[in-house]
Amino acid sequence: MLRLVSWIDTDTRVVPEETPLRQALKTFELGELQGLPVVDAQGRAVGFLHRASSARWLHREQREGLAAEAMSTPLILSAEAGLADALALMWESESHCVLTLDTNGCPAGILTSRAVLAGMQQSPLMQDLMKTPLADFWHAPVARVVPEDSLAEFLDLDCEGSPVVDAEWGELVGYLSQSDVARMLWSSRRSLRECKVLDAMTACCHTCSPQARLGEAVELMVSHKIHGVVLAENDQPLARVSALDVIYEVWRVLLQQSGALPLKRRKAFASLSRPTRQVG
């Protein structure tokens, strides 16, 4: 059985609970981190910060805050736990990070979805999965945004990331993620209702065709350190593949190999064929 101890990063960056939230967001950006353990004066883990939840907190409260105010309960497992257990916890909690602690309750290591995807790219266990065409997966509706939407409207959609499309033709013009919003928050004092999607979006949207293999999408996520890839044809976005979608599929393979099959396959990737918000 694959153990968590072989996958965690023991060089774990932390922030004290009295750290200003905007400063914590800057730490995320400069370190290209997926999560930050929050510690007390004795260095013990008391919470966990995610970029997305931190950005939502600042937007909701409309004031400066501390890491202790925006932190959530960390996902914690023993370093000796199985990797499949960690992946199940990440998927069920919709979190990209799982934390391990030492005997004093201090952060000892962190497992990230990025590390899992990087490790599974070349794993012989996952070769069949990585060859799966993206079009083989079922699709469910997800939102998209236009450049003139406000960043507050994007946060209200409560999604990890969204394709940005031209308001008139619906053609793909960029991508907006929670990380982009967090970057805007620490670099600007403007309200998110004043900031437009155009101000924060990434003009270069990483895409795959529906005929591409899952391994191609994973390669894009790992090499560009992103949480999702857009499926597109002829500049029209069709779906979004997230790192957590892949985490679920990896977990499913590990269960198959152990003889403990999930009851049913998750309908994994999110489709834009029936958008939840209208464009134009």
Helix content: 25-40%
Which descriptor suits the 3D outline?
flat
Mean pLDDT: 86
| Secondary-structure element series | EHEEHHHEEHHEHEEHHEHEEHE
Broad structural category: alpha/beta
- Which strand order do you get reading across the main beta sheet? 6-12-11-10-9
Poorly predicted ranges (pLDDT <50, ≥5 residues)? 265-280
The DSSP helix count reads 11
Report the β-strand fraction as a percent range: 15-25%
Largest sheet: 5 strands, mixed
Number of strands: 12
Ends: how far apart? 51 Å
Please state the CA-atom Rg, rounded to the nearest Å: 19 Å
What does this structure look like?
There is one protein chain. The protein contains 11 helices and 12 strands. The protein is α/β, with parallel strands linked by helices and 280 residues long. Helix 2 (51-61) packs across helix 8 (178-187). Helix content is 35%, strand content 19%.
Could you provide a short overview of the structure?
By secondary structure, the chain is α/β, with parallel strands linked by helices. It has helices spanning 21-31, 51-61, 67-70, 83-93, 113-121, 127-130, 151-156, 178-187, 197-200, 214-224, 243-258; strands spanning 15-16, 36-39, 45-49, 97-101, 107-112, 139-141, 161-165, 172-177, 207-208, 228-233, 236-242, 269-271.
Topology:
Layout: E1 15-16, H1 21-31, E2 36-39, E3 45-49, H2 51-61, H3 67-70, H4 83-93, E4 97-101, E5 107-112, H5 113-121, H6 127-130, E6 139-141, H7 151-156, E7 161-165, E8 172-177, H8 178-187, H9 197-200, E9 207-208, H10 214-224, E10 228-233, E11 236-242, H11 243-258, E12 269-271
Parallel strand pairs: 1-2, 6-12, 9-10
Antiparallel strand pairs: 2-3, 4-5, 7-8, 10-11, 11-12
